Amino acid sequence: MKSMNFLLFVLLGILLLSCNEATISNENELQKEAGKKEAEYSYPMLTVLGTIQDAGSPQIGCTKDCCKDLLENPDPDRMVVSLGVVDTDGQYYIFEATPDYTRQNDLLRDMGNNQEIKTPSGIFLTYAHIGHYTGLMYLGKEAMDAGKVPVYAMPRMSEFLQNNGPWSLLSERNNIAINTLNENESVRFSNVKVTPILVPHRDELSETVGYRIEGPNKSALFIPDIDKWDKWGEDIIKEVAKVDYAFLDATFFSGEEINNRDISQIPHPFVIESMELFKHLDASEKSKIHFIHFNHTNPIINPKSKEAKQVLEAGFNIAKVYDIFAL
């Protein structure tokens, strides 16, 4: 009996040692992967934090195939459209304050090289539709109660935030510090320059802008919302030629997906229209284009759809959360 007890004790010891070694091995592997991931980042960098239209996916009230299973089986990558930039000094900047701001802020902060920084050194807003500014609520007293987070916005957008509650409380309590932008006037940081560009869109409450984001080596164009390319005073093909990456409005693949609303009241360039416009570009110019800002009905959200394959086979890209681009 004593021999049997001793044998069991030895076997138990071997088992515990093996588990500890496996745990240490797993921890080492995780540390290696984390180190490898961090080493792959090249600052300054730009990343995609969200790709979906303002109301998200699934969208409220939708019972179509595009949404019906997502309430029970949500896709965590379906966050509302946003880009993030991390500069060489660890400061980070978010483009759009979306309903998914909390998670997007944490994702971007974790990509930074200064974990002591908890809030962005700048939030850049495009305009006053719900997916683009309502995330500011998480900086208020009921949530983070942040201190003077810089928010960059055009004149009408700035007035809207300052003169309408609950957003005006954020300024009054010094949760945010509004910095008013002017068209084509750049804001410079350590190694990043940001320039607002006016575009035509539904400007009920504010003007609408896109942004040119420039680092020391690469640059990007971000236009998540515009009525139609031919309504803009600028030539989008020439604007794409000026940058290395172009994140462009792809709200609807075509008009066929919206059969319960007047499509003329929600103008955007269809993906099929943009592909037709850009079809004569050479391969290197096409590869700059990353379609973004997808309505919940847009089939290219599904990478296995024939529409997504059509876009990729034509030489364009479909923006994905966690995509990283050197600046």
Written description of the protein model:
The chain has 327 residues and is α/β, with parallel strands linked by helices. It contains 9 helices and 14 strands. It has helices at residues 2-40, 101-111, 130-133, 155-163, 167-172, 236-241, 271-278, 283-286, 306-313, and strands at residues 45-50, 82-86, 92-95, 122-124, 149-153, 176-180, 187-188, 193-198, 209-214, 219-223, 245-249, 289-292, 317-318, 324-326. It is globular and about 50 Å long. The termini are far apart. Residues 1-39 have low confidence and may be disordered.
Quick summary of this structure?
The chain is of the alpha/beta class and 327 residues long.
Instruction: Please tally the β strands and state the result.
Output: 14
- Order of SSEs: HEEEHEHEHHEEEEEHEHHEHEE
- Please summarize the sheet with the most strands: 7 strands, mixed
Which architecture name does CATH use? 4-Layer Sandwich
Rg from C-alpha positions? 23 Å
**Helix content estimate:** 25-40%
Could you tell me how far the N terminus lies from the C terminus, measured between alpha carbons in angstroms?
71 Å
